[in-house]
TrEMBL record:
Organism: Sphingopyxis panaciterrulae
Keyword Protein biosynthesis: no
InterPro entries: AcylCo_DH-like_C (IPR036250), AcylCo_DH/oxidase_C (IPR009075), AcylCoA_DH/ox_N (IPR013786), AcylCoA_DH/ox_N_sf (IPR037069), AcylCoA_DH/oxidase_NM_dom_sf (IPR009100)
Family to which this protein belongs: Belongs to the acyl-CoA dehydrogenase family.
Domain Acyl-CoA dehydrogenase/oxidase C-terminal: 216-352
Protein name: Alkylation response protein AidB-like acyl-CoA dehydrogenase
Signal sequence region: none
Annotated Acyl-CoA dehydrogenase/oxidase N-terminal domain residues: 25-114
PANTHER family membership: ACYL-COA DEHYDROGENASE, ACYL-COA DEHYDROGENASE FADE28
GO molecular function per UniProt: acyl-CoA dehydrogenase activity; flavin adenine dinucleotide binding
Amino acid sequence: MSDELDPGVLAESFAEMLGAEWPREKAVAWSQAPALFAEPLWEQMAALGWTALTVPEAYGGLGLGMEAAAALHAALGAAAAPVPMLGTTLAAALLGAAGSEAQRTKLLPGLADGSSRAAVAQPGDMPIRLDGGSVGATIPDMIGAPAATLLFLRGERAGRPCWLALPADASGVSIAATALTDATRTLGTVTLDGVTVDEDALILAEDPAALDDHLLRVAAIAIAADAIGGGEAALAGTIDYMKVREQFGRVIGSFQALKHRVADHQAALVAARGLVEHAAGLPDDAPHALLDALSAKQHVTRTVAEIARDCIQLHGGVGFTAEFFPHIYLKRGKLNEVLFGTRTILLDRIADMLEAA
């Protein structure tokens, strides 16, 4: 089905729906009184098939690839939508790459129809030892965990890396939300206390390192896409404001110095979008697929965070208030910078890959 749906057409559809159902005013209101996630919006996304985007067709999905996923995550970033889509994208990738037929049949349909909400552990999380008996562990700062119904955690059995899939409401599992300045996402500390892990909960990859690289690539592209969408929306909204805000008897958008700043930001965003689209368009087995995804993530997230910060400045004093939107994109952008690898961590990985090439 991936040949039947053009990413550009999908992007327009995503933007149209979110513009109607989650306009800027809703994003601002949400930031002042957030909940775990916007359930009505999530249900609309599921009804439209968005949650099924990258789930294989055999399990109720659309079977699309990373170009479509990037288009969706960019639209969600532009809207600052408080929905746990990153977990669904990653869980679909994990199960598609390493899940057994029984695990796919059991778990993927729920991801596709939105009835399941997933949270997936990050690369730096310590693996849970699974060498017998009940399991006890603490996984801090897991993105999307407070809103999740299904947890995918890193494990280790007999010295071999693996994954385990656990219901968030399983006996012995508790999740404590972590305070977060970004009101559009959630973090949580997952605690396992005497949890029994059945054999059918274990996801065993033939090549665990290759699976980790695959998941890291998917995460990097999704997060970079979210960032570019947010950066473009923040700048567009700022330009709209500059067209009506007057100072010294003129709209501030007429001042040459401010025009130059906006032009520089626009040029940076065009280049950043090119990096995301290039990385998303590569097949997973392309020689530089992971390298290009990590390069895009570290560059785009930093660029967008800097632009979002300046958008606050370009608004003047009101840019620092909760009633205006720029702070939402700055906070979301700063979290994007550190999710699934800070810039320093990713640059170290990139350097190692280039040295080994």
